[in-house]
Amino acid sequence: MKYTIMVNEGPYQHQSSDSALQFVRAALEKGHEIFRVFFYHDGVNNGTRLAVPPKDDRMLQKEWSELAEKHGLDLVICIAAAQRRGLMDASEAKRQGLNADNIASGFRISGLGQLIDGGIESDRTIVFGD
Amino acid sequence: MAKKFLYLNRKAPYGTVYALESLEVVLIAAAFEQEVSLAFLDDGVYQIAKGQTPKAVGMKNFSPTYNALGDYGITKLYVERESLVERGLTEDDLMPIVYEDEDDDYTEKPSVQVISRTEMAKIMAEQDVTFSF
Lengths: 130, 133
Description:
The structure holds 2 protein chains of 2 kinds.
Chain A: E1 2-7, H1 16-29, E2 33-39, H2 60-71, E3 75-78, H3 79-85, H4 90-95, E4 107-110, H5 113-121, E5 124-128
Parallel strand pairs in A: 1-2, 1-5, 2-3, 3-4
Chain B: E1 4-9, H1 18-29, E2 35-40, H2 64-67, E3 77-80, H3 81-86, E4 98-101, E5 107-110, E6 112-115, H4 117-125, E7 129-132
Parallel strand pairs in B: 1-2, 1-7, 2-3, 3-6
Antiparallel strand pairs in B: 4-5
């Protein structure tokens, strides 16, 4: 089955990113296709490369990046939500006249249309939120 | 073939950003020519309450945007009756949101439909894609 996943909460404060990550891993192991993972609301914070959690804790952002690299996942951060919360890729930072970017590898920034497109193209759309 | 998309709004309009960002998704979704409905339940019913004046707490009043949904072809706004009653609200406390029916000489018709919890469950079951905010 083809899935689109929506992640609506940031890492650590809520469990929804953990749950989404576990779901995506399980679905891939069972041979399902993950069409897209779309990060919205505070969920965009899953895509920062500047998180440094304590060593005995899980590293959610890094786990998303590694999973994306291993399986060629399409991890999309909503641009409108990202702009509010200070998530930038290099080209967006340049466009905004900012001197830094912080997006983790494997993520890309795009529009809300990518979420709707995911809903249209996938057999199931699952929201991980509060 | 168009899919049925339902946007479930469960949270109050201010205090968190869910309602505002849900509305942003809905406005984008309208461009995709899918069958879009909105549902308001739990504290979400406050999102379309009349007389919102959040300026005093530094928030933008985005409630007029709901009145524009008809222009985007979004004409089905379901409100759960039980959620209204539990909060001491009636339909009169909601904004009179309307749309112009192009199949009926552009007559203004109400977009808001107050329905029971049982009917809401039925509408949810009919959807292809449900986004919960």
